[in-house]
Amino acid sequence: MIQHISAVTFAVRDMQEAVAFYHKLGFTLTYGGPQARFSTLQAGEAWVNLSLSPTYQQQWWGRTIFRVDNADAMHQRALDQGLAPGPLCNGAWGERYFHLTDPHGHELSFAQLLAQDASP
After folding, report:
1. Is 70 helix (H, G, I), strand (E, B) or coil?
2. Among 13, 24, 55, 67, which has the minimal tally of Cβ within 10 Å of its Cβ?
């Protein structure tokens, strides 16, 4: 049985820019670095791999969703770091979330589970 996604790998044109972006979101470099061809960053149980591809051309493919404890705090962190997250929203499916696009066009979402109404 599959339990969860272990990591996601993004192609990036500029490793230094990408590592700096994910560091602003609270990810810690565990392998590679700004001059490497491949880097791994971790935040909690979430892992992001960055693979240098200087000719990568941005195209929409989907969205990676990161579960967070507090969407409002994560949104504020992004703002404090000079990033431009979308507005905070409450989804009818029970999540508070916002979207943010990384410098290479990868769409990210940060989502917090909302308390479920226990009434019948």
Report:
1. coil
2. 55
The CATH class given to the 8-113 domain equals alpha beta
C-alpha atoms less than 13 angstroms from C-alpha of 20 in its C-beta half-sphere: 11
AA identity, residue 99: H
CA distance between the termini of the chain = 31
CB neighbour list of residue 15: distance below 8 Å, 6 or more residues apart: 32, 33, 34, 35, 36, 37, 39, 50, 52
Question: Coil, strand, or helix at residue 3?
Answer: coil
Task: List, in sequence order, the alpha helices (H) in 25-93.
Answer: 71-80
- What per-residue confidence (pLDDT) applies to 119? 46
Among 29-33, 59-63, 103-107, the range scoring the smallest mean pLDDT is 59-63
